[in-house]
Amino acid sequence: MPMIQLTLPAGVLTGEARQRLQKTLATTLLIWEGAPDTAFFRAQAWCLITEVSAGAFGTAEDELPRFRVDATVPEGALSDRRKAGLVEQVTADVLAAAALTEADALRVWVLIHEQPEGTWGAAGNIIRFAELKALAAQARG
Length: 141
What we know:
alpha/beta; 141 residues; two-stranded antiparallel sheet
Protein backbone atom coordinates (compact mmCIF):
# COMPACT_ATOMS: atom_id res chain seq x y z
CA MET A 1 0.00 0.00 0.00
CA PRO A 2 2.52 2.58 -1.10
CA MET A 3 2.04 6.31 -1.45
CA ILE A 4 4.17 8.75 -3.39
CA GLN A 5 4.01 12.53 -3.24
CA LEU A 6 5.71 15.07 -5.47
CA THR A 7 6.08 18.67 -4.33
CA LEU A 8 7.10 21.21 -6.96
CA PRO A 9 6.57 24.84 -7.93
CA ALA A 10 3.29 25.63 -9.68
CA GLY A 11 3.44 25.95 -13.44
CA VAL A 12 6.49 23.73 -14.00
CA LEU A 13 4.39 20.92 -15.50
CA THR A 14 1.67 21.21 -18.10
CA GLY A 15 -1.70 19.78 -17.10
CA GLU A 16 -1.18 16.81 -19.40
CA ALA A 17 2.36 16.14 -18.10
CA ARG A 18 1.08 16.35 -14.52
CA GLN A 19 -1.66 13.81 -15.21
CA ARG A 20 0.75 11.39 -16.93
CA LEU A 21 3.35 11.78 -14.19
CA GLN A 22 0.80 11.02 -11.48
CA LYS A 23 0.14 7.60 -13.03
CA THR A 24 3.81 7.04 -13.87
CA LEU A 25 5.02 7.70 -10.33
CA ALA A 26 2.43 5.36 -8.81
CA THR A 27 3.34 2.65 -11.31
CA THR A 28 7.07 3.15 -10.72
CA LEU A 29 6.57 2.74 -6.98
CA LEU A 30 4.61 -0.49 -7.46
CA ILE A 31 7.24 -1.91 -9.80
CA TRP A 32 10.10 -1.29 -7.38
CA GLU A 33 8.04 -2.55 -4.47
CA GLY A 34 7.55 -5.78 -6.42
CA ALA A 35 3.76 -5.63 -6.32
CA PRO A 36 1.78 -7.52 -8.98
CA ASP A 37 0.23 -5.50 -11.79
CA THR A 38 -3.41 -5.98 -10.79
CA ALA A 39 -6.33 -3.58 -10.47
CA PHE A 40 -6.32 -4.06 -6.68
CA PHE A 41 -2.67 -3.10 -6.21
CA ARG A 42 -2.86 -0.24 -8.76
CA ALA A 43 -5.84 1.16 -6.80
CA GLN A 44 -3.80 1.10 -3.58
CA ALA A 45 -0.82 3.02 -5.01
CA TRP A 46 -1.68 6.61 -4.27
CA CYS A 47 0.08 9.57 -5.86
CA LEU A 48 -0.35 13.15 -4.74
CA ILE A 49 1.18 16.04 -6.64
CA THR A 50 1.37 19.23 -4.62
CA GLU A 51 2.19 22.46 -6.38
CA VAL A 52 3.40 25.35 -4.25
CA SER A 53 3.44 28.97 -5.33
CA ALA A 54 6.38 30.22 -7.35
CA GLY A 55 9.25 31.23 -5.09
CA ALA A 56 7.98 29.13 -2.17
CA PHE A 57 10.30 26.21 -2.88
CA GLY A 58 13.88 26.94 -3.80
CA THR A 59 17.40 27.53 -2.55
CA ALA A 60 19.60 30.43 -1.52
CA GLU A 61 21.59 29.97 -4.74
CA ASP A 62 19.09 30.28 -7.61
CA GLU A 63 15.45 30.21 -8.57
CA LEU A 64 15.46 27.02 -10.64
CA PRO A 65 12.57 24.69 -9.83
CA ARG A 66 13.18 21.98 -7.23
CA PHE A 67 11.30 18.70 -6.87
CA ARG A 68 10.81 16.71 -3.67
CA VAL A 69 9.44 13.19 -3.93
CA ASP A 70 8.31 11.45 -0.74
CA ALA A 71 7.71 7.72 -1.10
CA THR A 72 6.03 5.97 1.83
CA VAL A 73 6.16 2.17 1.92
CA PRO A 74 5.71 -0.51 4.56
CA GLU A 75 8.92 -1.25 6.45
CA GLY A 76 10.74 -4.09 4.71
CA ALA A 77 9.06 -3.57 1.34
CA LEU A 78 12.21 -2.23 -0.35
CA SER A 79 15.67 -3.78 -0.28
CA ASP A 80 18.68 -1.50 -0.76
CA ARG A 81 18.71 -2.50 -4.46
CA ARG A 82 15.02 -1.65 -4.83
CA LYS A 83 15.49 1.69 -3.05
CA ALA A 84 18.32 2.61 -5.42
CA GLY A 85 16.24 1.58 -8.44
CA LEU A 86 13.24 3.56 -7.19
CA VAL A 87 15.33 6.70 -6.66
CA GLU A 88 16.91 6.41 -10.11
CA GLN A 89 13.63 5.77 -11.95
CA VAL A 90 11.59 8.39 -10.07
CA THR A 91 14.28 10.97 -10.80
CA ALA A 92 14.16 10.06 -14.51
CA ASP A 93 10.33 10.19 -14.46
CA VAL A 94 10.30 13.70 -12.96
CA LEU A 95 13.03 15.01 -15.26
CA ALA A 96 11.21 13.70 -18.34
CA ALA A 97 7.87 15.19 -17.26
CA ALA A 98 9.48 18.58 -16.62
CA ALA A 99 11.45 18.43 -19.91
CA LEU A 100 14.75 18.58 -18.04
CA THR A 101 17.99 16.67 -18.56
CA GLU A 102 20.21 14.47 -16.43
CA ALA A 103 22.25 17.58 -15.71
CA ASP A 104 19.28 18.76 -13.62
CA ALA A 105 19.08 15.55 -11.55
CA LEU A 106 20.40 17.17 -8.35
CA ARG A 107 17.23 19.28 -8.31
CA VAL A 108 15.17 16.11 -7.70
CA TRP A 109 15.29 14.70 -4.18
CA VAL A 110 13.65 11.38 -3.36
CA LEU A 111 12.97 10.64 0.30
CA ILE A 112 11.92 7.12 1.22
CA HIS A 113 9.83 6.77 4.37
CA GLU A 114 9.45 3.27 5.73
CA GLN A 115 6.28 2.98 7.76
CA PRO A 116 6.95 0.78 10.82
CA GLU A 117 4.94 -2.42 11.17
CA GLY A 118 1.63 -1.83 12.92
CA THR A 119 1.43 1.88 12.04
CA TRP A 120 -0.37 1.71 8.68
CA GLY A 121 -4.12 1.52 8.68
CA ALA A 122 -6.79 1.26 6.00
CA ALA A 123 -10.46 0.34 5.99
CA GLY A 124 -10.48 0.69 9.77
CA ASN A 125 -7.79 -1.97 10.25
CA ILE A 126 -4.05 -2.17 10.79
CA ILE A 127 -2.40 -3.39 7.59
CA ARG A 128 0.54 -5.72 8.09
CA PHE A 129 3.33 -6.17 5.53
CA ALA A 130 3.05 -9.98 5.76
CA GLU A 131 -0.62 -9.69 4.74
CA LEU A 132 0.32 -7.57 1.73
CA LYS A 133 3.00 -10.06 0.71
CA ALA A 134 0.45 -12.90 0.95
CA LEU A 135 -2.03 -10.95 -1.19
CA ALA A 136 0.70 -10.29 -3.77
CA ALA A 137 1.71 -13.96 -3.86
CA GLN A 138 -1.93 -14.97 -4.28
CA ALA A 139 -2.39 -12.45 -7.12
CA ARG A 140 0.63 -13.91 -8.92
CA GLY A 141 -1.00 -17.34 -8.71
